[in-house]
Structure formats: C-alpha cells, structure tokens
C-alpha cells in the first residue's frame, strides 16, 4: 500500500504539472531531455570496389555497421532510470499507454545507394532489451529499427542494466545494413565518396498510462551519425587511372660491431673465461631522410592522403663466430627502436656458429597511411643496437692468437602507397645493406663489419724448493726435553710425533687477505697433485715394538681432513704414510682442509717397550725421520697461466723439544732410560721421592745433593712450556704441514707474480 500511495502521489504531481502546462501552452505536451544519447561513435561504413563489365564502371559493396554498448549509452540517463525504479514506474512507450517503451533508430542513405533489405542483421547481447521483439522497416532510402525494452517495470529494467555492468557494460546491440553504389566514371565515384550515410534515434517514455499519459512524455534523442557512403571508391583501379609505378631503391647504412663501448679498431683483449656480449649497431638516420624524399614524390600531397597497403618491413642481423669461439646463450635484445621494431626470433645456424636475429615492424597492420609510417620511423633513435648474448672462448682457442668475429645486416620495406585524391599508386621495394662505418673499421679487416678478440698467451713456470719442517717426538705426550724419561723394563709406553700447523694456517690467511677471494679462492685450480710423505721411527737395540703395535697407531687432530694410508713395521723401523682424505682442486678447498685441522697434529704409536736384553740404567735413543715431496699444477682460470710446484722437505727438531742428551742436534730424536725392577724406588707411586717422604735422602757428598732418576710415569714430569711443533714421526703431520705450507707459499708466489705481470 505504501508503494501504491507513492506511485499515486507521483502520478498526481505529474498530472498537475501536465494540466498546468496544457493550460499555459496547450500544444506543449513533450518534454525533450537535455542529455543526448551518444551512439554515433559506435557506427562505421566500409567496403570494397569491384570493376564492372563496362569500361570505367565499378560497384562499391559497402556495409553500414553499428555495435552499440547500450549500458554505456543509457548511462546518460542512469539517474532518471534509478528514480523511475525507486518510484516503481512502468516504462510506457510511444505506441500508447501500457505498451513498453523502445529505442527507435533510423539510418538514411543518399540517393543512388541500393539497400539490401534481405541481408539486414540485428543481434542483441544485453539483458535490458527484448530481442524477440526487435524489428526493422525499410522505407525508401531509410531503415528504421525498433528495440523494445523487456516488458517489466522500471525496477526490473534498472536491475537488468546493473546486471549487464551498468555504464561500464560492453554488451552490445549490433546492426549491419549491406548496400551497393555503382559509378559509371571516376568523377561519379568521387561524388559518391563525398556523400554520407546519416543516422539518428530517440527513446520515448511516459511515466503514466492513465489520462496524463500524453502529458508525461519524455524523449531522449541520440546524437547524429554521419559516415562516408563509399570511402576510397575513386581509388579503385576501374576508372582508367594511371598504372601502378614500381619503385626499387637500395641504400647503404653505416654499421659496426662493438664489445661494450669498444669499436674494435684494434684487437680487443679479454680473459679466457670472460663472457662477451657483441653489439651490432646500425645508423637509420638515412632511412628517415629516405622516407621524406618518398613523401615528396607525391607533389602537393599530404601524407595522410597516401594510403598504405601490404606494408611489411624487416631487418636481419647475423653474428658469425670463428671455430674457437662459441655461443653460451641464444639471446638477443634490441635498443633504440622505441617500440617501432621488435625482435621476432633468434636462431643458431651453421653448426651453431652463426646467430641470426630477425627484427620486424611492430603493428604493421595498423599503419594504414604514410603519415603513420613516417611518424613511426621518426620515433626511432638514429642508431639501432642489437646485443648478441653470450660468447666465450672454447677449448680450441689459444692464448696470444687473434680471432675475428664478423657481422651482417640487411633490411627491407615493401608497401603499396596510393594517393587517395589523385589515385596515383606506387609499389615500393626498399632494400638496405649495412656497411662498416668509417670510424669503426678494424685494422685487420677494414672492408667488413668485423671485430677481433684475443686473450693473452698463458705462461708456464716451475718452482722448486727444498725446506725444513719443525717437529718433535714425545713420550706419553711429554717432550722430556729437560730430563731423560725413565721406564721400568716391563713398561709399554706411547711415542708421539707432533707437528704444529698453526703457522701454516696463518700463512694461508695472509694469502687470502693479500688477494681477493674471487681471484685466489675460486679462480686458481689445483691439478696433477702428487704427494708422498713418509715419517719413520727407528728403535735402537734394547727397544722393540709390541706384537700389536701396528694396531695402536692413531692420527689425532686431523678431524677427517687427512688420513693414514699405510703403516708397516720392518724389524725395529716403523714407517707411516699419510695422504689428504679428500681430493682438492682449488685454493678454497686447500684452505678449508688446513683450517679444518687442529693446531697440533699428532701420530701416536702406543706399542713401544724394552727388549729382553735391555740394560737397567742405560739410555736408549729413538730416531725420527720425516721426508716429503709435493708436486702440483696451479692454473689461473682466467688467464690460463700455469705454475708447477716441485717441493721437498726434511724434518728438523723443534726448538724447545730437543733431546736432553744431545740438545744441539737438528735430528728428531728422543732418549729413554731403562730401570730394572730391583732399581725401582721404594715408593712405586712416586719413585722420584725417597722412601721416607718426610726425610729426603741426602747425597753422599753433602755439597752436591743427588738427583733422583726420572720415573716412567709422565704424570710426575713437568711439561715443557715451549709450544710443541709438528715435525716428528707422524707422516700425516709432516705431509699435511709440508703440503699445505707448500701450496700456500706457491700460490702466494703465483698470485704475486701474476699481479706483477698485470694478469
């Protein structure tokens, strides 16, 4: 009831207004809306000409078309539709009360046009309009269409409008009207070209279907569409026009090959493993000048009146490599074209030694007039650049030799250009060839688009060195450099070879700090590694190895970076061979191996005892010996330079760990004393003390107190304060120290020399 009252109040208001208007202006019953519905922009004409049987006759087969997005069109009266929907009005139409409103649209053709009424088409994709009720009527030179709304109240219509997307809707009513125009002469065809097809429509609706129906009339008119009847008709080759002219032109363009900004007048120096991106350049300023000259061949013509057909333009750029260079990527980029040309495809040909890049004119199908083509060409930079990625020297290349890379570039443009006023047509075939620019000529080959590259010849040298490594022998982990350790005849004791690798770590760090990690750690490859390090321990008469001594040899501090590869006992001599646990190929791997071990590397032999013929109170000296050889090839990956290392080492006694019986010798040795059971002190727990701990024994000579013998227990012996060093029997210690020290020193020499040579 509320809606009905609202509707009645609305009708009462409209009725009162209509009556008042009728009394004042009896004939003024139409309210013409101020807003025009914008339809013209969605109309067009097109067609083709065909020559008639008679000379100088032709028929233009045209179509008037409209594709009208009704949501966008009706957006102009969206406010009125929404108010009508809120008030619940019914869209009464032009044909009377309670008949649905419709859009009426009339298309009018000029005299001479023949409408193909049987082929007229109309389709609908909207929800607002009732497709089944669509109709058209042909009357003379006009076609009138009626497009009724769906037969519902305004709330329903407005809901359909919103469903279609409102003012943003792309749902259309499409109209096609085929027609023909026949001309018997060129002049007649030109006259038809001047004529237009017009179209206009309106949408009439009434708010009430009762008495004030006539007074509630509102009409929304459309804008006027005016489209050419026969566009391009006079250009048809049917009216005795001049025959087409074929024009062929060839033009040389300056071109060059570069590496970066280097034009390559002389050979460009690169590193062996360096990636190279070659840049081909082409000066297209001459093409812009050529286009201006072509335009001037149409005397007095405006470029917009020169129609283009069958336009096609391409460039082909090729980069040819010698056998010693290879592509690592198949990629090309274009710069300077500013979207006028684009990369079509990039391929490798001729056993992948030639890269071919095709450039094509972007959007050629939309360039339909000469002014559009001219503007596109002028939008380019004066120089186009094609970058070929990426090239490297391959295994066949040799340092010190020069290799030439050549380029080739060609282009073409083909089109039919027709002056739409005079009918003059020219078939253009333009050819462009790249020629080496004067400023970029290569000294080696000035007549070609060419550039030469090389990398320095690799050098090879051998470094031979002989050096010492400090080592020590320990018994039960004590250096015993101040006293001779004493053991009972039946004791089994442990002899340890020790090597201090801390100096090696320091030297490796110095190498890394002195040279950037990317130059040393990763760019130097180590190969052809040969190493042999042997540490031996030889027992004197009076000492022997236990039967299972071989099972008690242990490497400590290596942390898996080094390992014992062989251990053997031959009589009184024990030999241990050690190797790197994993393969090393770069400085980085070597440094990781060095840093991975502890500062003190040790080889422990746990099965040494006195022989049956050992004499109590007698000293026995164990001899240690370490020898090593290390050979390796260090190759700088970027330059190919090689240094071969040939190092040899000899173990020497570590300062502070000397044998107390012979402290001046460089030989690695250790002396122990045999103590018979009967000579063992009364207190076996501490043989270094007298029987009565409260009363120390007095020497025979009161002025010279006696010195007790040092017992075999290490716990009772004061350890040396001197830092122990590597260099005793342990093969691994000597091997690791010698090898790592040699490599570190060798690389230091290698990189230093490389720096001095500027490579």
TrEMBL record:
Keyword list, A-Z: Coiled coil, Membrane, Signal, Transmembrane, Transmembrane helix
Region span, Disordered: 676-730
Residue ranges with Basic and acidic residues bias: 676-707
Transmembrane segments: 732-751
Regions annotated as coiled coil: 284-311
Lineage: superkingdom: Bacteria
Signal sequence range: 1-33
The protein, known as: LPXTG cell wall anchor domain-containing protein
Organism: Suipraeoptans intestinalis
Organism placement in taxonomy: Bacteria, Bacillati, Bacillota, Clostridia, Lachnospirales
């Amino acid at each position: 009831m509320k809606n009905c009252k609202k509707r009645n109040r609305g009708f009462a208001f409209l009725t009162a207004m209509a009556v008042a208007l009728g009394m004042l202006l009896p004939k003024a019953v139409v309210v013409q809306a101020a807003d025009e519905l914008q339809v013209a922009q969605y109309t067009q004409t097109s067609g083709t000409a065909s020559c008639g049987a008679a000379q100088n006759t032709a028929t233009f087969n045209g179509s008037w078309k409209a594709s009208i997005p009704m949501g966008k069109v009706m957006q102009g009266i969206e406010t009125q539709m929404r108010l009508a929907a809120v008030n619940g009005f019914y869209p009464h139409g032009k044909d009377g009360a309670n008949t649905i409103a419709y859009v009426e649209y009339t298309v009018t053709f000029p005299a001479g046009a023949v409408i193909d009424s049987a082929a007229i088409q109309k389709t609908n994709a909207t929800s607002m309009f009732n497709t089944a009720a669509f109709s058209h009527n042909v009357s003379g030179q006009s076609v009138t269409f009626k497009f009724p709304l769906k037969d519902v109240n305004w709330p329903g219509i407005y809901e359909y409008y919103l469903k279609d997307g409102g003012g943003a809707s792309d749902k259309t009513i499409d109209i096609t009207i085929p027609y023909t125009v026949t001309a018997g002469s060129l002049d007649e065809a030109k006259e038809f070209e001047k004529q237009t097809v017009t179209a206009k429509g309106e949408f009439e609706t009434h708010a009430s279907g009762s008495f004030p129906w006539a007074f509630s009339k509102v009409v929304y008119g459309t804008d006027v569409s005016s489209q050419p009847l026969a566009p391009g008709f006079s250009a048809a080759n049917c009216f005795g026009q001049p025959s087409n002219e074929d024009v062929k032109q060839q033009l040389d363009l300056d071109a060059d090959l570069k590496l970066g900004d280097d034009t390559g007048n002389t050979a460009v120096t690169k590193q062996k493993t360096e990636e190279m991106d070659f840049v081909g350049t082409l000066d297209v300023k001459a093409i812009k000048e050529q286009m201006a000259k072509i335009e001037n061949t149409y005397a007095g013509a405006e470029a917009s009146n020169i129609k283009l057909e069958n336009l096609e333009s391409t460039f082909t750029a090729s980069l040819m490599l010698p056998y010693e260079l290879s592509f690592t990527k198949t990629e090309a980029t274009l710069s300077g074209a500013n979207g006028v040309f684009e990369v079509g495809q990039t391929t490798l040909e001729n056993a992948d030694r030639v890269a071919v890049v095709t450039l094509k004119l972007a959007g050629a199908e939309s360039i339909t007039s000469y002014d559009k083509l001219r503007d596109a060409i002028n939008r380019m930079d004066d120089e186009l650049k094609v970058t070929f990625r990426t090239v490297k020297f391959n295994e066949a290349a040799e340092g010190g030799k020069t290799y030439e890379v050549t380029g080739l570039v060609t282009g073409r443009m083909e089109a039919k250009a027709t002056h739409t006023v005079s009918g003059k047509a020219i078939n253009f075939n333009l050819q462009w060839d790249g020629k080496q620019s004067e400023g970029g000529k290569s000294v080696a080959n000035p007549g070609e688009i060419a550039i030469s590259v090389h990398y320095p010849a690799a050098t090879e040298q051998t470094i031979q060195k002989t050096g010492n490594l400090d080592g020590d022998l320990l018994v039960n982990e004590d250096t015993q450099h101040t006293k001779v350790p004493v053991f009972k005849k039946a004791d089994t004791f442990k002899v340890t070879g020790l090597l201090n690798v801390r100096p090696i770590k320091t030297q490796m760090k110095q190498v890394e700090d002195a040279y950037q990690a990317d130059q040393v750690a990763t760019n130097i490859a180590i190969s052809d590694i040969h190493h042999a390090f042997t540490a031996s321990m030889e027992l004197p008469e009076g000492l022997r190895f236990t039967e299972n001594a071989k099972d008690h040899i242990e490497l400590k501090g290596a942390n898996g970076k080094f390992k014992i590869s062989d251990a053997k006992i031959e009589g009184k001599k024990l030999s241990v061979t050690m190797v790197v646990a994993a393969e090393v190929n770069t400085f980085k791997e070597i440094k990781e191996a060095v840093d991975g071990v502890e500062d003190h590397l040790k080889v422990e032999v746990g099965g040494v005892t006195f022989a049956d013929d050992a004499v109590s109170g007698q000293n026995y000296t164990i001899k240690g010996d370490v020898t090593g050889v290390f050979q390796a090839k260090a190759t700088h990956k970027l330059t190919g330079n090689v240094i071969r290392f040939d190092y040899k080492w000899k173990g020497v006694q570590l300062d502070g760990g000397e044998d107390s019986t012979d402290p001046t010798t460089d030989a690695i040795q250790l002396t122990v004393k045999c103590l018979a059971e009967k000579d063992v002190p009364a207190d076996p727990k501490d043989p270094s003390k007298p029987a009565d701990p409260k009363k120390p024994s007095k020497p025979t000579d009161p002025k010279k107190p006696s010195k007790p013998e040092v017992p075999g227990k290490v716990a009772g012996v004061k350890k040396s304060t001197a830092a122990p060093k590597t260099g005793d029997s342990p093969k691994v210690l000597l091997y690791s120290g010698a090898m790592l020290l040699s490599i570190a020193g060798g690389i230091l020499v290698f990189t230093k020399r490389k720096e001095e040579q500027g490579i």
